[in-house]
């Protein structure tokens, strides 16, 4: 692993008044157009010290001249020395927060959740003895060796895998790094198997989406399992079939995974087989359907299922796409609701950060009102405890549960 050493000479930075207030209030991002003054031309990964208008220390962070988010704050408040002990404690804080969340029944979870854990632009996930580090800004590249050493010291993984967001892969290549690279330990030969609430899953940590699995939906999968007894379940945008495994283990009569990706459906079949030792899962019929979800839902409108789960990928990757995303969520929820038998449950989720929770919930509620059923709202959920969202921009996950009742 090649990576240039961090700059010893720190940048001195001054911000606009509005940016000063945001940083003082705890926000970890400073956009490039909010930087009023730089002491010199900065490089990716430079430590930048922010001073306020009275020349007092305000914060310190990582600089990235190629990103719209030019500065990501690591610490604000009183001056500190970012020595090895500081870094060690900085990682220990989020790791200690997870110790009370999981036991041996769950060996796959998020250890560090970026900005919300004080590590802006970096996430760290655990899959059994494999640690997966994903970075979203080139500012972390010069500090990668230090981060890897801290991970080894704290988690003692057998393998550490690096995942890179697309926007920094060229910069990473210039440092001898690539997406899916094993930074430490044994090579990864196939999927990594881990446990979640006693269920068994595989994660494609080298090439899979995110870091290999959608760990953020753990709590919703658990709820689906608890509500699935005796139900025929349709899992739309099923990906690797996580919801279906929980439904089967919860006593579902049948589960159907619907996804456009044959690769995803093959993973769903493998995950289902990994859990066949469970007595209830053995009895559950499992089917897969490879099709475009929108087309399939609208061509199959007969009430056939007792639970329909709709968990699409992000439908709004930028603010301008939000109106189209809301229309798509309504369209999906309407189609899903019409597939339900009486007393069936509609589970609708969104991972689009640009669609706020109240907007998404309202779209699903409106769709439900237009369907053939009346609905009782059972609950809404947000982020899992290992995926905290401590700034508005980090709030992306939301899910609503509606139960159909016969119209009078």
Structure characteristics:
single chain; 408 residues; alpha/beta; Archaeosine Trna-guanine Transglycosylase, Chain: A, domain 4; Transcription Regulator spoIIAA; Rossmann fold; 3 domains; seven-stranded mixed β-sheet; six-stranded mixed β-sheet; 11 helices
What structural class do the secondary elements suggest?
A: alpha/beta
Unreliable segments of 5+ consecutive residues: 2-7
Number of strands: 20
Number of domains: 3
Number of helices: 11
User: What global shape is seen?
Assistant: globular
Taking the sheet with the most strands, its summary is: 7 strands, mixed
CATH superfamily of the largest domain: Vaccinia Virus protein VP39
β-strand amount = 25-35%
Here the CATH topology of the largest domain equals: Rossmann fold
Average pLDDT, rounded to a whole number, is 95
Helix content class: 25-40%
Level-1 CATH class name of the largest domain: Alpha Beta
Spatially, the strands of the biggest sheet line up as 16-15-14-17-18-20-19
Radius of gyration, whole Å:
23 Å
Annotated CATH architecture of the largest domain: 3-Layer(aba) Sandwich
What gap, in angstroms, lies between the N and C termini? 67 Å
């Amino acid at each position: 692993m090649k990576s240039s050493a961090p700059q010893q000479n720190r940048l001195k930075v001054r911000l606009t008044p509005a940016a000063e207030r945001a940083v003082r209030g705890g926000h970890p991002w400073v956009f490039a157009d909010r930087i009023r003054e730089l002491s010199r031309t900065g490089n990716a990964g430079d430590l930048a010290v922010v001073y306020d208008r009275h020349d007092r220390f305000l914060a310190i962070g990582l600089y990235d001249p190629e990103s719209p988010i030019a500065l990501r704050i690591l610490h604000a408040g009183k001056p500190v020395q970012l020595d090895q002990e500081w870094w060690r404690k900085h990682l220990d804080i989020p790791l200690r927060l997870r110790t009370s969340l999981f036991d041996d029944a769950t060996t796959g979870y998020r250890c560090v959740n970026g900005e919300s854990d004080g590590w802006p632009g970096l996430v760290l996930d655990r899959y059994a003895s494999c640690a997966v580090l994903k970075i979203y800004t080139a500012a972390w590249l010069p500090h990668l060796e230090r981060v890897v050493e801290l991970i080894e010291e704290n988690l003692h993984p057998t393998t550490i895998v690096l995942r890179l967001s697309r926007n920094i892969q060229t910069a990473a290549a210039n440092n001898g790094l690539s997406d899916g690279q094993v930074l430490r330990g044994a090579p990864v030969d196939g999927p990594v198997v881990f446990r979640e609430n006693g269920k068994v899953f595989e994660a494609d940590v080298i090439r899979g989406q995110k870091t290999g699995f959608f760990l953020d939906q753990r709590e919703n999968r658990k709820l689906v399992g608890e509500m699935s007894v005796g139900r025929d379940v349709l899992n739309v945008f099923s990906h690797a079939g996580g919801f279906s495994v929980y439904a089967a283990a919860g006593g579902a009569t049948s589960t159907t995974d619907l996804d456009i990706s044959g690769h995803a459906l093959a993973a769903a079949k493998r995950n289902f087989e990994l859990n066949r030792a469970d007595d209830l899962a053995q009895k559950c019929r499992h089917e897969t359907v490879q099709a475009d979800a929108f087309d399939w839902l609208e061509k199959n409108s007969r009430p056939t299922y007792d639970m329909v789960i709709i968990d699409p990928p992000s439908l709004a990757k930028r603010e301008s796409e939000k109106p189209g995303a809301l229309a798509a969520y309504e369209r999906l929820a309407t189609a899903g609701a019409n597939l339900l038998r009486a007393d069936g449950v509609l589970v609708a989720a969104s991972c689009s950060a640009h669609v706020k929770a109240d907007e998404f919930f309202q779209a699903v509620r409106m769709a439900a009102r237009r369907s053939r059923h009346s609905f009782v709202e059972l609950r809404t959920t947000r982020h899992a405890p290992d995926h905290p969202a401590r700034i508005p921009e980090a709030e992306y996950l939301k899910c609503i549960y509606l139960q159909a009742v016969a119209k009078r």
